[in-house]
Structure formats: C-alpha cells, structure tokens
C-alpha cells in the first residue's frame, strides 16, 4: 500500500514507522505524464515488496516538503532507512564489504525519471 504524504509531520511519522526497513518515497504530480505511467507500477511494487514502506508526495499539494527534500524534477524517488536518506556515506560499510568481495555496485540512492526497472533494482539492492 502506498501512503499519501501531505506535510512534513506526516513525512516524519512515515519515516519513523519504517524504522530500519527501506522506505521509498515518490515525488510526483497529477499533471505529469511520466508520473501517471509510474503510478500503477509503484502501487504494484508496494504489494510485491511487503517489507518495504512506500509513500507518495504530490509536489503541487506539498511544495514545502518538495523543497525540503530538494526535488528538482518529477517523478523523483528517494530511499530512506532509519529516517535518513540512503546515501553513499551511510552505505560505506556495505561498499567496503562489496569491494573486498570483488563486487561493486553503483551507489545511486535517488533518481528522477519513470524507469521502473531502475526503481525495482534499487529497491532490491537496498532491502
């Protein structure tokens, strides 16, 4: 299920509820064509990945939240764990481990665009 986030308080509550689990937040708008294409895919992923928290923020209804999260284009997907955006620095231990085992992954933690394959691959990587 995709939770609709309308303001910063709801956003903080959502991230707190996710705890150590992956939280994926889609920033979109109802007028955006690529957002409309991603909407049913994003909802299907929320059913498929029951151990991941999914939310949507309409940037027109929540411009302050979009600005706080540095949204420059839509759709944008951001990943969070422990109420913090997953970043290169928060993943440093994993990267070192992967480097030692000879496997390096691309440290993307946010992307803009309607590519369902990239979104699903990133969810699987960060779960």
TrEMBL record:
Keyword match 4Fe-4S: no
Cross-referenced PROSITE patterns: THIOREDOXIN_1 (PS00194), THIOREDOXIN_2 (PS51352)
GO cellular component: acrosomal vesicle; Golgi apparatus
Main location, first listed in the record: cytoplasm
Record keywords: Cytoplasm, Developmental protein, Differentiation, Disulfide bond, Golgi apparatus, Redox-active center, Spermatogenesis
Domain of life, source organism: Eukaryota
Keyword DNA-binding tagged: no
Residue ranges of domain Thioredoxin in the record: 2-124
SUPFAM superfamilies listed in its UniProt record: Thioredoxin-like
Any Pfam family the entry gives: Thioredoxin
GO biological process: cell differentiation; spermatogenesis
Subcellular location as annotated: Cytoplasm; Golgi apparatus
Function text: May be required for post-translational modifications of proteins required for acrosomal biogenesis. May act by reducing disulfide bonds within the sperm.
Family: Belongs to the thioredoxin family.
Protein's name according to its UniProt entry: Thioredoxin domain-containing protein 8
Organism whose genome encodes this protein: Saimiri boliviensis boliviensis (Bolivian squirrel monkey)
The encoding gene: TXNDC8
